[in-house]
Amino acid sequence: MAHARRTFICGPALLTGAVLLAACSDSSTPTSSDSRNSPNFPKPPNVNPAPSPVPLGSALAGLMPFEAAQFARGQAVFVRVFTPATGLGPLFNNTSCAGCHDDPVTGGYSDDDFETHATAYHRGSCNMLASEGGPVFESHVTPAVTALTGLTAAPVPKDATGTGIRFTPDVFGRGLIEAIPDQTLRQLAWQERSNPDHIAGRANILANGHVGRFGRKANVDNLRDFNATAFLKEMGITSSLDPQEPLIIAGKTLPASIEPGGIDLSDKDLNDATAFTRLLAPPPLQAQTAQTNTGSMLFDKVGCAGCHVRSLKTGSNAASPSLSNRTVGLFSDLLLHDMGPALADICFLSANPSEFRTEPLMGVNHREEFMHDHKSTTIDDAIQRHGGQGSAARARFRALSPAQQAALTAYVNTL
Ligand code: HEC
Ligand code: HEC
Question: Is the confidence at residue 29, as pLDDT, over 90?
Fold first, then answer.
């Protein structure tokens, strides 16, 4: 099947926002007085990427030899299975990164591997339940923990006000997402404030001053930090960034001797695993047809592209030349949006229960379950569940003819 790459050739449809003007130049560029992503703004369907030779799960094209070597070493860390003897636990969700991120290839998503997050939300403030082992409550424990406590999983404490089931997303193309400058996301948020659909996403400004973009609540800004936390929370693997074993279960602290002491993961392994997640190429786009070209046009017209921004440009100071000044077709603004009470689950740091990061649509073509809870098995159903700031686009989608709706969902299924 003909695949296409996500390195976009700049087209007029990409140029309706000032942020993107820097990305390319085109004589048909609308002026900045055009309302960005206005549903009535005419856009040609021809905004799809050109064919790419890079199959799913490969590294970005054009890596330096040392980067290719680091990618290969990092992949080995990503698939490494940990045991209690090599530091697994005492609490964990799985025994390797690839134990969850493996569908359809290493680095992918999972429909059946999930984790449980729980927090407490009171009068606008979020308690991460850290003193009770939160916000991640692990589904497995080592035999030593069971022998001591009789427990086989970390229970969600009674004072949690919400539980969020988080299914495993893809990590393809995440290095490009990491390399999108904070300023781009801040500008998008500023522009969205005047969007006629009232989509008004907000940049999740973290304690370190950067704009969060990873996780469904956009609560981490960089892959090294995210991965170190994943090693700790998913597998109980400590590193120099996260040296404290997860020892709290059911309100009690386990003795430190329950686990071999010391740091489980070397900095080299953490850096290699991070290089792997950083240098994975974005997923290829499927071939387009006359129907999906219509769908692409409707995607803009009904206002999907207001939040699912087709592409953004990485900065020039990215970790690798292969990540610098690239246009990534992520189909997200990476901002937090209030999606209404029906989707709401948990608060997470400054994000409210109803706020979610616009899920990048890149890779939809190889996924089968959608939304943070994976309860949607069709694109149509995912759209129907967009409330809050997604309501206007949903209403316009509902007003389309059945053939137009089919064209739009067929298009999304190629992303
Ligand atoms: C138990 C299954 C599971 C395991 C094991 C796991 N992950 Fe994940 N991963 C997830 C889930 C669930 C999320 C989404 C978390 C959220 O929304 O806050 C995620 C998100 C990510 C992301 C961010 C993707 C994005 O766009 O937000 C990265 C990067 C990542 N994982 C890397 C890793 C690495 C590296 C490892 C191994 C140390 C790992 N994961 C192990 C389930 C898993
Ligand atoms: C107000 C911003 C906004 C608009 C407008 C919007 N979306 Fe979304 N979309 C989101 C957010 C936020 C999520 C994540 C929701 C969740 O995880 O529960 C999402 C999730 C999705 C998903 C699920 C992706 C996955 O892998 O889980 C699909 C598919 C989708 N949107 C398609 C569309 C289409 C098609 C339109 C236009 C009809 C649209 N969206 C309009 C913000 C928006």
Answer: no
**What count of other Cβ atoms lies within 10 Å of the Cβ of residue 311?**
24
Q: Which pLDDT tens digit goes with each residue over 280-313?
A: 999 999 999 999 999 999 999 999 999 999 999 9
Nearest CA to ligand 1 atom 41: 97
The pTM assigned to this predicted structure is 0.90
**CATH for 3-22+175-204+281-412, options being 1.10.760, 1.10.287, 1.10.3470, 1.10.20:** 1.10.760
Of 179, 134, 207, residue with least CA distance to 327: 179
309 Cβ below 6 A of ligand 2: no
Q: What is the DSSP letter of 8?
A: P
- How many angstroms does the Cα of residue 308 sit away from the middle of ligand 2? 7
Mutate to test the pocket of ligand 1, among 115, 233, 348 (most ligand atoms within 8 A of CB): 115
Q: Where are the domains of the chain?
A: 3-22+175-204+281-412, 65-173+222-278
pLDDT tens digit sequence for 85-112: 999 999 999 999 999 999 999 999 998 8
CB contact at 8 A, 173 and 56? no
CA distances from 169 to 104, 110, 152 (A): 12, 7, 25
In whole angstroms, how far apart are CA 49 and each of 52, 55, 232, 271? Answer: 8, 15, 37, 31
